[in-house]
Amino acid sequence: MRSVGILALFLVLSTSLIATSQCGCGIDVDPDCYLVFKTNETIEFSLVVPMDWFQVNGYTQNPRIFGWRIETKEGNVVRTVVFDGEPRNRLEVMEWDLANEDGQIVAPGYYNVIVMTTDSDVAYPVRIVDACRSFCACLCDCYTPLICDIPCCPPYGQLYLDLRVGEVRSCNGLRFSFTITIEAPPVP
């Protein structure tokens, strides 16, 4: 009886190990902090210039923005946008549609959103997770684990980025909406 229990435990462990190895579900090293976005969302971001940045650096003028780029965790550039003409005001709101230079949505993983300014490059790590999976052949990818944001603390005396969801796209092209209209009766 005891050998049947050990054999069953061995089978369960070996099956889960094989399933994990077949799909590339190895443990990935996470950055210390990041925000999570889904593949059907866009990312709006803007540069934040805190008051302590002026005090620490002794500047009297706001930095200006040349453009932005997206890099993989390994440092490969996925997309670059450089503004035409003069650098833009720090109040510029930028948006990444999660597409690379070829217009294809990037694969789930870790990326850095980088804004190029007259002072320095300012980066914020993000994690892109799949939101529109319709079929999965791998045991390890058939569930979506709860993935939470681990926000980065704003650094003292440094520029930083504010990121948020810009737009949520439909996964299959279908959109449903309904409108409710409430009308008040005319006043006599």
Overview of the structural elements:
The chain has 188 residues and is α+β, with helices and mostly antiparallel strands. It has a domain at 35-163: Immunoglobulin-like (Sandwich), CATH 2.60.40.4070. The chain is 15% helix and 30% strand. The protein contains 2 helices and 8 strands; from the N terminus they run H-E-E-H-E-E-E-E-E-E. The strands form 2 sheets. The chain has a 5-stranded mixed sheet with strand order 1-7-6-3-4, with no helix packed on it. Strand 6 (109-117) and strand 7 form a beta hairpin. It is extended and about 60 Å long. Residues 16-27 have low confidence and may be disordered.
The main sheet comes to: 5 strands, mixed
Taking the alpha carbons of the first and last residues, their distance comes to 88 Å
The averaged pLDDT comes out at 80
Helix % is 10-25%
**Rg:** 23 Å
User: How many strand elements?
Assistant: 8
Using the coordinates shown, work out and report the CATH topology of the domain at 35-163. Answer: Immunoglobulin-like
